[in-house]
Amino acid sequence: MKTKLDDLPVAPDDGTSRGMPPRRLSVGEPAGFGLDELLRLSPWYAMLPAPVQGWIRERAREHRVAQGQLLARRGEIPTAWFGLAQGLLKTSVLAADGRSSTLGGILPGCWFGEGALLRGKPRHADYVALRDSRVVLLPLDDFARLLQEQPVFKDFVYSQINERLHYFMDHVGDVRLMRGPARVANALCGLAHVLNNPLGLVHLPIAQDELAAIAAVSRQRCNLALQHMQAQGWLHVGYGHLTLLALDPIAEMARSG
Fold first, then answer.
1. Residue 20: phi, psi to the nearest 5?
2. In contact, 98 and 81? CB cutoff 8 Å
3. Which of 158, 188, 193, 235 is the most exposed, fewest CB within 10 Å of its CB?
4. What are the beta bridge partners of residue 92?
5. Angle CA(182)–CA(187)–CA(188) in degrees, nearest 5?
6. Residues 6+ apart with CB under 8 A from 17
7. Residues 6+ apart with CB under 8 A from 164
8. Distances from the Cα of 53 to the Cαs of 57, 142, 153, 154, in angstroms?
């Protein structure tokens, strides 16, 4: 029987994942999708009337981002809502002195960037491709029209914003105080969170150097932390991917700092 994220041992629900029931994928399923498949797997899309779904399909378009390139830059005025169809992204903030602070990773199936669209102000962070990626773009005007005319879409978007607020309050504030192993564990917990991994992937399409970039640690420190977690039976390290086996002890490792 294939393992699903919902089947893994996790901490009791603290209310941070309410409101957005995802469709869960099993370990062996692909981590990349075409436009039609991404829309079909998106809960907000499934709640809309068929004519509206067809209209969205006509308006959405795909955009490719090469490894190391920016999908969106801090300070630019947003023009579209994003959905990751394939690849891996990280959210980061670059200071004036060149220092970079990583806020988290984004896996296929995730829709993001709605906060800047609603504010109508420049983006507060960069979205960087850690590997060649495909992103679905829904233009700002169409996003705004859906908000105005489709209550279920509006409910989804505002629920997601609320979840993001609680997620960052619960997880991001303590990262600066964490040691290397705890940073790696925290990054894994972030990738398993419904906001960044709405499809519930257990087989994470991420290499060690990519995880190190999200955790803001060296590849060597990341490798040592992963080897410890694998020896404990919490995850399996593969070539270019990681398979989560138990989330409870990984979360406890993150909380230990």
1. -135, 75
2. no
3. 158
4. 102, 126
5. 100
6. 163, 193, 194
7. 115, 195
8. 6, 12, 12, 15
Residue indicated by tokens 């998106």: 42
H helix or E strand, kind and range, residue 126:
strand 126-139
Predicted confidence (pLDDT) per residue in 21-58, tens digit:
333 434 444 568 899 999 999 999 999 999 999 999 99
- Largest separation between any pair of C-alpha atoms in the chain: 52
Q: Using the 8-state DSSP alphabet, how is residue 170 labeled?
A: I
Structure tokens at 208: 């060690």
SS3 assignment, position 202: coil
Structure tokens at 3: 């393992």
Residue type, position 187, single letter: A
Per-residue pLDDT tens for 142-200? 999 999 999 999 999 999 999 888 877 766 556 656 788 999 998 999 999 888 999 88
Q: How far is CA 228 from CA 21, 169, 176, in A?
A: 32, 28, 22
Residue pair 106/197 in contact by the 8 Å Cβ criterion? no
SS3 19: coil
Which helix H or strand E contains 238, and what residues bound it? strand 235-238
SS3 of the chain: helix, strand, coil, percent, to 5: 40, 25, 35
Rounded Cα distance between 150 and 226, Å, is 44
Pairing of strands 203-204, 100-106: unpaired
